[in-house]
Amino acid sequence: MNRSLVDVLPSGAAVLGARDGADRLRLTDRLAGVRRVAVVLVDGLGWHLLPQLAPHAPLLAAVLAGADGEVDELACTFPSTTPTSLVSFGTGERPGAHGVLGFTVAVPGTERVLVHIAWREDPPPRDWQPRPTWFDRLTAAGVDARAVLPAAFLGSGLTLAAYGGARFCGVAAEADYAAAFAAEVAAGPGLVYGYTSLLDTAAHVHGIASPEWAAAAADVDRLLTRIRAALPPDAALLVTADHGGLDVGPAGRIDVAAEPALLAGVRLVVGEPRVRYLHVRPGAAPDVRDAWRERLGADVEVLLRDEAIAADLFGPVLDSHRARIGDVVVICRGQRAVFASDREPPETARLVGLHGSDSAAETAIPLVLLRPE
Fold it and tell me: Does pTM surpass 0.90?
Protein backbone atom coordinates (compact mmCIF):
# COMPACT_ATOMS: atom_id res chain seq x y z
CA MET A 1 0.00 0.00 0.00
CA ASN A 2 1.15 3.57 -0.67
CA ARG A 3 0.99 6.16 2.13
CA SER A 4 -1.45 4.54 4.47
CA LEU A 5 -2.82 4.57 7.98
CA VAL A 6 -0.26 1.93 8.95
CA ASP A 7 2.51 4.50 8.41
CA VAL A 8 1.32 7.13 10.89
CA LEU A 9 2.75 5.77 14.13
CA PRO A 10 6.06 4.53 12.66
CA SER A 11 6.54 8.03 11.23
CA GLY A 12 5.59 9.65 14.53
CA ALA A 13 8.06 7.37 16.29
CA ALA A 14 10.79 8.51 13.92
CA VAL A 15 10.00 12.15 14.71
CA LEU A 16 10.48 11.33 18.39
CA GLY A 17 13.78 9.57 17.73
CA ALA A 18 12.59 6.10 18.71
CA ARG A 19 14.57 3.14 17.47
CA ASP A 20 12.80 1.22 14.70
CA GLY A 21 10.83 4.34 13.77
CA ALA A 22 10.33 4.54 10.03
CA ASP A 23 9.44 7.93 8.59
CA ARG A 24 7.43 6.64 5.65
CA LEU A 25 5.37 9.84 5.59
CA ARG A 26 8.40 12.17 5.63
CA LEU A 27 7.34 13.98 8.76
CA THR A 28 10.76 14.51 10.36
CA ASP A 29 11.76 17.55 8.32
CA ARG A 30 8.28 19.05 8.54
CA LEU A 31 8.17 18.56 12.30
CA ALA A 32 11.72 19.63 13.15
CA GLY A 33 12.17 20.31 16.87
CA VAL A 34 9.04 18.41 17.90
CA ARG A 35 9.34 16.43 21.14
CA ARG A 36 5.61 15.86 21.69
CA VAL A 37 3.45 14.27 19.01
CA ALA A 38 -0.30 14.44 19.58
CA VAL A 39 -2.38 12.20 17.31
CA VAL A 40 -6.18 12.46 17.18
CA LEU A 41 -8.10 9.90 15.14
CA VAL A 42 -11.49 11.22 14.08
CA ASP A 43 -13.71 8.24 13.33
CA GLY A 44 -15.32 8.65 9.91
CA LEU A 45 -13.32 11.69 8.74
CA GLY A 46 -12.95 10.62 5.13
CA TRP A 47 -10.83 12.55 2.63
CA HIS A 48 -13.79 12.95 0.30
CA LEU A 49 -15.90 14.38 3.13
CA LEU A 50 -13.57 17.33 3.80
CA PRO A 51 -15.25 19.73 1.32
CA GLN A 52 -18.67 18.85 2.75
CA LEU A 53 -17.35 19.35 6.26
CA ALA A 54 -15.51 22.63 5.61
CA PRO A 55 -18.50 25.02 5.90
CA HIS A 56 -19.01 23.81 9.48
CA ALA A 57 -15.36 23.48 10.51
CA PRO A 58 -13.23 26.65 10.35
CA LEU A 59 -9.94 25.03 11.35
CA LEU A 60 -10.19 22.14 8.90
CA ALA A 61 -11.50 24.51 6.22
CA ALA A 62 -8.37 26.66 6.62
CA VAL A 63 -6.18 23.57 6.27
CA LEU A 64 -8.07 22.44 3.18
CA ALA A 65 -7.70 25.91 1.64
CA GLY A 66 -3.94 25.91 2.28
CA ALA A 67 -4.15 28.75 4.80
CA ASP A 68 -3.08 26.74 7.85
CA GLY A 69 -1.13 23.55 8.50
CA GLU A 70 -0.73 20.83 5.90
CA VAL A 71 -2.88 17.95 4.71
CA ASP A 72 -1.92 14.72 2.94
CA GLU A 73 -4.10 11.96 1.53
CA LEU A 74 -3.63 8.46 2.95
CA ALA A 75 -5.55 5.21 2.65
CA CYS A 76 -6.93 2.96 5.34
CA THR A 77 -6.75 -0.82 5.21
CA PHE A 78 -9.49 -3.20 4.06
CA PRO A 79 -12.15 -3.69 5.26
CA SER A 80 -12.59 0.03 5.89
CA THR A 81 -14.15 -0.50 9.28
CA THR A 82 -13.26 0.86 12.70
CA PRO A 83 -11.91 -2.24 14.51
CA THR A 84 -9.75 -3.25 11.57
CA SER A 85 -8.45 0.27 11.02
CA LEU A 86 -7.70 0.96 14.68
CA VAL A 87 -5.58 -2.17 14.95
CA SER A 88 -3.89 -1.44 11.61
CA PHE A 89 -3.08 2.03 12.97
CA GLY A 90 -1.85 0.74 16.31
CA THR A 91 0.31 -2.08 14.98
CA GLY A 92 1.46 -0.55 11.70
CA GLU A 93 0.41 -3.83 10.07
CA ARG A 94 -2.18 -4.79 7.48
CA PRO A 95 -5.11 -6.95 8.65
CA GLY A 96 -3.80 -10.24 7.34
CA ALA A 97 -0.96 -9.93 9.86
CA HIS A 98 -2.83 -8.61 12.89
CA GLY A 99 -5.98 -10.70 12.44
CA VAL A 100 -8.73 -8.18 13.26
CA LEU A 101 -10.29 -8.75 9.88
CA GLY A 102 -13.72 -7.17 10.16
CA PHE A 103 -16.37 -5.50 12.27
CA THR A 104 -17.70 -8.94 13.15
CA VAL A 105 -16.00 -12.23 12.38
CA ALA A 106 -16.67 -15.89 13.06
CA VAL A 107 -14.44 -17.48 15.68
CA PRO A 108 -12.90 -20.42 13.79
CA GLY A 109 -14.13 -23.84 14.82
CA THR A 110 -17.29 -22.43 16.44
CA GLU A 111 -20.63 -20.92 15.51
CA ARG A 112 -19.76 -17.86 17.57
CA VAL A 113 -19.69 -14.36 16.08
CA LEU A 114 -17.17 -11.99 17.65
CA VAL A 115 -18.26 -8.34 17.62
CA HIS A 116 -14.94 -6.54 17.94
CA ILE A 117 -16.35 -3.36 19.49
CA ALA A 118 -18.01 -5.43 22.24
CA TRP A 119 -15.02 -7.74 22.78
CA ARG A 120 -13.61 -8.12 26.28
CA GLU A 121 -11.30 -10.95 27.38
CA ASP A 122 -12.55 -13.87 25.23
CA PRO A 123 -10.67 -14.64 23.07
CA PRO A 124 -7.62 -13.26 24.91
CA PRO A 125 -6.64 -10.05 23.10
CA ARG A 126 -2.93 -10.80 22.89
CA ASP A 127 -3.68 -14.25 21.45
CA TRP A 128 -6.27 -13.07 18.95
CA GLN A 129 -4.09 -10.12 17.89
CA PRO A 130 -0.46 -11.31 18.24
CA ARG A 131 1.45 -8.36 16.78
CA PRO A 132 3.19 -5.76 18.95
CA THR A 133 1.75 -2.27 18.79
CA TRP A 134 3.70 0.91 18.25
CA PHE A 135 2.76 1.83 21.81
CA ASP A 136 4.64 -1.30 22.88
CA ARG A 137 7.58 -0.31 20.70
CA LEU A 138 7.67 3.28 21.91
CA THR A 139 7.52 2.22 25.55
CA ALA A 140 10.34 -0.29 24.99
CA ALA A 141 12.39 2.50 23.39
CA GLY A 142 11.92 4.71 26.44
CA VAL A 143 9.44 7.06 24.79
CA ASP A 144 6.35 7.87 26.84
CA ALA A 145 3.26 6.69 24.95
CA ARG A 146 -0.18 7.59 26.26
CA ALA A 147 -3.74 6.98 25.06
CA VAL A 148 -6.53 9.30 26.18
CA LEU A 149 -9.74 7.35 25.70
CA PRO A 150 -13.34 7.30 26.86
CA ALA A 151 -13.30 5.49 30.19
CA ALA A 152 -15.71 2.85 28.85
CA PHE A 153 -13.02 1.71 26.39
CA LEU A 154 -10.48 0.79 29.03
CA GLY A 155 -9.90 -2.93 29.41
CA SER A 156 -11.70 -3.87 26.20
CA GLY A 157 -10.21 -6.41 23.84
CA LEU A 158 -10.12 -3.89 21.01
CA THR A 159 -8.34 -1.30 23.16
CA LEU A 160 -5.65 -3.79 24.14
CA ALA A 161 -5.30 -5.12 20.59
CA ALA A 162 -4.91 -1.63 19.12
CA TYR A 163 -3.15 0.31 21.87
CA GLY A 164 -1.55 -2.29 24.16
CA GLY A 165 1.59 -0.90 25.75
CA ALA A 166 0.21 2.63 26.11
CA ARG A 167 -0.31 4.32 29.44
CA PHE A 168 -4.08 4.77 29.49
CA CYS A 169 -5.97 7.84 30.64
CA GLY A 170 -9.71 7.21 30.91
CA VAL A 171 -12.03 10.18 30.44
CA ALA A 172 -15.57 10.04 31.81
CA ALA A 173 -18.41 10.77 29.39
CA GLU A 174 -19.33 13.99 31.22
CA ALA A 175 -15.71 15.23 31.50
CA ASP A 176 -13.91 17.78 29.32
CA TYR A 177 -12.11 15.58 26.81
CA ALA A 178 -10.11 18.38 25.18
CA ALA A 179 -8.80 19.50 28.56
CA ALA A 180 -7.86 15.94 29.55
CA PHE A 181 -6.04 15.40 26.27
CA ALA A 182 -4.23 18.74 26.48
CA ALA A 183 -3.11 17.95 30.02
CA GLU A 184 -1.48 14.72 28.83
CA VAL A 185 0.35 16.57 26.05
CA ALA A 186 1.53 19.17 28.56
CA ALA A 187 2.78 16.47 30.95
CA GLY A 188 5.95 15.82 29.00
CA PRO A 189 7.60 14.65 25.77
CA GLY A 190 6.31 11.61 23.95
CA LEU A 191 3.28 10.53 21.97
CA VAL A 192 -0.30 11.14 23.06
CA TYR A 193 -3.16 9.48 21.19
CA GLY A 194 -6.82 10.44 21.24
CA TYR A 195 -10.04 9.36 19.56
CA THR A 196 -13.50 10.76 18.90
CA SER A 197 -16.52 8.97 17.41
CA LEU A 198 -18.79 12.04 17.11
CA LEU A 199 -18.67 12.28 13.31
CA ASP A 200 -19.05 8.57 12.59
CA THR A 201 -21.97 8.20 15.00
CA ALA A 202 -23.84 11.04 13.32
CA ALA A 203 -23.16 9.55 9.88
CA HIS A 204 -24.46 6.14 10.87
CA VAL A 205 -27.57 7.33 12.67
CA HIS A 206 -28.59 10.37 10.61
CA GLY A 207 -26.56 10.25 7.39
CA ILE A 208 -23.75 12.37 6.04
CA ALA A 209 -26.22 14.73 4.37
CA SER A 210 -27.98 15.48 7.67
CA PRO A 211 -27.93 18.57 9.90
CA GLU A 212 -26.81 16.28 12.72
CA TRP A 213 -23.69 15.34 10.78
CA ALA A 214 -22.94 19.01 10.14
CA ALA A 215 -23.33 19.71 13.87
CA ALA A 216 -20.97 16.86 14.69
CA ALA A 217 -18.44 18.26 12.20
CA ALA A 218 -18.57 21.58 14.04
CA ASP A 219 -18.10 19.82 17.38
CA VAL A 220 -15.07 17.91 16.09
CA ASP A 221 -13.53 21.10 14.72
CA ARG A 222 -13.99 22.86 18.06
CA LEU A 223 -12.34 19.91 19.81
CA LEU A 224 -9.33 20.04 17.49
CA THR A 225 -9.14 23.83 17.76
CA ARG A 226 -8.98 23.64 21.55
CA ILE A 227 -6.33 20.91 21.49
CA ARG A 228 -4.27 22.84 18.96
CA ALA A 229 -4.55 26.05 21.03
CA ALA A 230 -3.11 24.25 24.08
CA LEU A 231 -0.09 22.76 22.30
CA PRO A 232 3.29 23.56 23.85
CA PRO A 233 5.87 25.09 21.48
CA ASP A 234 7.64 21.76 20.96
CA ALA A 235 4.47 19.87 20.02
CA ALA A 236 2.63 18.98 16.82
CA LEU A 237 -0.91 17.75 16.26
CA LEU A 238 -1.62 15.05 13.68
CA VAL A 239 -5.25 14.42 12.76
CA THR A 240 -6.24 11.32 10.83
CA ALA A 241 -9.15 8.89 10.45
CA ASP A 242 -10.02 5.23 10.25
CA HIS A 243 -12.25 5.41 7.15
CA GLY A 244 -14.64 7.61 5.20
CA GLY A 245 -18.19 6.71 4.26
CA LEU A 246 -21.27 7.33 2.16
CA ASP A 247 -25.03 7.30 2.55
CA VAL A 248 -26.82 4.30 1.03
CA GLY A 249 -30.51 4.73 0.31
CA PRO A 250 -33.29 2.14 0.32
CA ALA A 251 -33.01 1.32 -3.38
CA GLY A 252 -29.53 -0.14 -2.99
CA ARG A 253 -30.23 -2.34 0.03
CA ILE A 254 -30.94 -6.04 0.09
CA ASP A 255 -31.95 -8.07 3.15
CA VAL A 256 -30.89 -11.71 2.94
CA ALA A 257 -33.62 -12.62 5.44
CA ALA A 258 -36.06 -12.04 2.60
CA GLU A 259 -33.95 -13.95 0.06
CA PRO A 260 -33.89 -17.63 1.11
CA ALA A 261 -32.10 -18.64 -2.08
CA LEU A 262 -29.09 -16.60 -0.97
CA LEU A 263 -28.88 -18.49 2.31
CA ALA A 264 -28.76 -21.97 0.77
CA GLY A 265 -25.60 -23.59 2.09
CA VAL A 266 -24.75 -20.59 4.33
CA ARG A 267 -24.06 -21.10 8.06
CA LEU A 268 -23.04 -17.60 9.14
CA VAL A 269 -23.34 -14.11 7.69
CA VAL A 270 -20.85 -11.78 9.37
CA GLY A 271 -18.89 -8.61 8.57
CA GLU A 272 -21.10 -5.57 7.95
CA PRO A 273 -23.44 -4.28 5.22
CA ARG A 274 -20.74 -3.14 2.79
CA VAL A 275 -18.47 -6.19 3.20
CA ARG A 276 -19.90 -9.59 4.11
CA TYR A 277 -18.13 -12.79 5.05
CA LEU A 278 -20.20 -15.90 4.38
CA HIS A 279 -19.23 -19.08 6.21
CA VAL A 280 -20.75 -22.00 4.40
CA ARG A 281 -21.30 -25.72 4.72
CA PRO A 282 -18.53 -28.01 3.45
CA GLY A 283 -18.26 -27.95 -0.32
CA ALA A 284 -20.87 -25.21 -0.80
CA ALA A 285 -18.58 -22.22 -1.41
CA PRO A 286 -18.56 -22.22 -5.25
CA ASP A 287 -22.33 -22.58 -5.46
CA VAL A 288 -22.86 -19.85 -2.87
CA ARG A 289 -20.48 -17.54 -4.71
CA ASP A 290 -22.27 -18.12 -8.01
CA ALA A 291 -25.74 -17.62 -6.51
CA TRP A 292 -24.74 -14.32 -4.91
CA ARG A 293 -23.05 -13.12 -8.09
CA GLU A 294 -26.15 -13.84 -10.14
CA ARG A 295 -28.54 -12.17 -7.68
CA LEU A 296 -26.48 -9.10 -6.75
CA GLY A 297 -25.07 -8.14 -10.13
CA ALA A 298 -22.15 -6.04 -11.30
CA ASP A 299 -22.07 -3.57 -8.39
CA VAL A 300 -21.14 -6.34 -5.95
CA GLU A 301 -17.97 -8.41 -6.22
CA VAL A 302 -18.24 -11.93 -4.80
CA LEU A 303 -15.04 -13.91 -4.25
CA LEU A 304 -13.97 -17.16 -2.69
CA ARG A 305 -11.63 -16.73 0.28
CA ASP A 306 -8.55 -17.75 -1.70
CA GLU A 307 -9.51 -15.34 -4.48
CA ALA A 308 -9.83 -12.48 -2.00
CA ILE A 309 -6.47 -13.29 -0.42
CA ALA A 310 -4.81 -13.59 -3.84
CA ALA A 311 -6.17 -10.15 -4.71
CA ASP A 312 -4.11 -8.75 -1.78
CA LEU A 313 -7.14 -7.21 -0.11
CA PHE A 314 -5.78 -7.88 3.38
CA GLY A 315 -2.02 -7.99 2.84
CA PRO A 316 -0.25 -11.29 3.47
CA VAL A 317 -2.56 -13.42 5.63
CA LEU A 318 -1.11 -15.57 8.39
CA ASP A 319 -2.26 -19.19 8.25
CA SER A 320 -3.73 -18.78 11.74
CA HIS A 321 -5.96 -15.95 10.49
CA ARG A 322 -7.26 -17.40 7.21
CA ALA A 323 -10.38 -18.98 8.70
CA ARG A 324 -11.49 -15.62 10.11
CA ILE A 325 -12.19 -14.56 6.54
CA GLY A 326 -15.42 -15.98 5.16
CA ASP A 327 -15.45 -18.88 2.74
CA VAL A 328 -17.09 -16.30 0.45
CA VAL A 329 -16.34 -12.55 0.55
CA VAL A 330 -19.00 -10.09 -0.67
CA ILE A 331 -17.80 -6.56 -1.48
CA CYS A 332 -20.48 -3.94 -2.17
CA ARG A 333 -19.72 -1.00 -4.41
CA GLY A 334 -21.75 1.93 -5.60
CA GLN A 335 -25.00 2.39 -3.72
CA ARG A 336 -25.27 -1.19 -2.52
CA ALA A 337 -25.41 -2.84 0.90
CA VAL A 338 -26.37 -6.28 2.22
CA PHE A 339 -28.28 -6.57 5.49
CA ALA A 340 -29.18 -9.65 7.50
CA SER A 341 -32.11 -8.57 9.67
CA ASP A 342 -32.67 -12.03 11.15
CA ARG A 343 -29.06 -12.27 12.36
CA GLU A 344 -28.18 -8.77 13.53
CA PRO A 345 -29.44 -6.14 15.99
CA PRO A 346 -32.41 -4.16 14.63
CA GLU A 347 -30.41 -0.92 14.66
CA THR A 348 -28.10 -2.25 11.94
CA ALA A 349 -30.87 -2.03 9.35
CA ARG A 350 -31.51 1.58 10.37
CA LEU A 351 -27.98 2.76 9.63
CA VAL A 352 -27.86 5.49 6.99
CA GLY A 353 -24.15 6.21 6.54
CA LEU A 354 -22.06 3.12 5.80
CA HIS A 355 -18.47 2.08 5.09
CA GLY A 356 -16.37 -1.06 4.94
CA SER A 357 -15.76 -1.49 1.22
CA ASP A 358 -12.77 -0.51 -0.92
CA SER A 359 -14.15 2.54 -2.72
CA ALA A 360 -12.18 5.78 -2.50
CA ALA A 361 -15.07 7.36 -0.59
CA GLU A 362 -14.53 4.77 2.14
CA THR A 363 -10.76 4.22 2.12
CA ALA A 364 -9.24 7.65 1.44
CA ILE A 365 -8.43 9.49 4.68
CA PRO A 366 -6.55 12.67 5.58
CA LEU A 367 -3.44 13.28 7.61
CA VAL A 368 -3.52 16.86 8.90
CA LEU A 369 -0.37 18.40 10.40
CA LEU A 370 -0.73 21.37 12.73
CA ARG A 371 1.87 23.21 14.80
CA PRO A 372 1.10 25.58 17.69
CA GLU A 373 -0.48 28.88 16.70
Answer: yes
